[in-house]
Amino acid sequence: MSIQVARVPRLLLVIVLASSAGVAVWYTPKLSGSSAQPTAAAAAPVAVAVMQVKKNTIRTWDDFSGRLEAVERVLIRPQVAGQIKEIRFREGQLVKQGDVLLTIDAAVYSAAVAQAEAQVASARARKLFTSGEAERARKLWPARAIAQNILEQRENEALEADAQLKAAQANLRLAQINLGYTEVRAPISGRIGRREVTTGNLVAAGPEGPVLTTLVSVDPIYLSFDADEQAVVRALDTFSQRDQLANVPVRVTGQGFQATEGRLQLLDNQIDPQSGTVRMRALLANPDGQLVPGQFARLQMGQAQAREAILVEERSIGTDQDRRYVLILDDQNKVSYRQISLGARVDAQRIVTSGLAEGDRIIVDGMQRVRPGALVTPQPVIDNGSSLASNKI
Hints:
Layout: H1 2-36, E1 46-52, E2 55-58, E3 62-70, E4 73-76, E5 82-87, E6 94-95, E7 100-104, H2 107-140, H3 148-180, E8 183-185, E9 190-192, E10 202-203, E11 213-216, E12 221-228, H4 229-236, E13 249-253, E14 260-271, E15 277-284, E16 296-301, E17 307-313, E18 318-320, E19 323-329, E20 335-346, E21 349-354, E22 361-365, E23 376-380
Parallel strand pairs: 1-23
Antiparallel strand pairs: 1-22, 2-17, 3-12, 3-16, 4-11, 5-7, 5-10, 6-9, 7-8, 9-11, 12-15, 13-14, 13-16, 14-15, 17-21, 18-19, 19-20, 19-22, 20-21
Helix pairs in contact: 2-3
């Protein structure tokens, strides 16, 4: 028993010593390694894309929706009564001013012309006779070979014959006009509509007569739209500058339209109190007829005068609650915070109305990697204006 009691403490001592040695061995590398680790080096300046601010001559554009309208629209009605003899147009055809669209039976009107011509010939013969009689009477009067009342009578007959000739000539012109009206011609150049009558129908004349077809002009064409007061002020500065209307550019945008540009032609004389908008109208060239009256179109209205402005990329603008800012660099390439005020959007850029000056350097890419006060390595980028090709002048 005594031997066993003596062995137990010795065994425990060995285990304790071994455990202590193991702990010492485990801690020793940690302490020695920690003391050997060097102090961390200072961080290198971050590379960021930087652009130098410059002024650009631009026009800003406002977007609207409008309707295309024909400059001229004509209801074709007969000017003389009669039977439709021939229709010479195709529905939807482009016609020129003066083209014959259809004809009306001309037999009656041709006879009227012939009758009027005969009346003119008769009146001309009577005038010739009465003029000769009056001339002979005037020659006899100095010798008192005829009575005074006969002289006066023959002179009056000559005057009456002259008036009758003029009346006959006027009737002839009227008959010729009516004969000409039997050919219904296009009063303007444009696109013809559908025909409302067919060959053989009798038609009446004048404003109460039937509409034979319609005709609308094609080139140029109107584009009417409603603009808010602020947009008008941006385009013209004031409502009183109506003499500058022709200098305000307008362009059609949207799918299905080729690039079409025009000029402002009308600014209405009052603002709609309900909507706060004013009626405007632009005049657009339409040589190929791609724009059709009644069609819905999207458009942009620019400014009458181009202006200088500072533009920055949208990606270079940061948001701080309700404020906008950019990060700029000083001469030592140190970053600083600069609050700015923004104007209109121009494609992928924004106009800066305050907070920046020409020559300032702003960070375009890499804003997330730097903070105010940090030193950076600037990598200049060039603003080639490709995103502003349609807005820079």
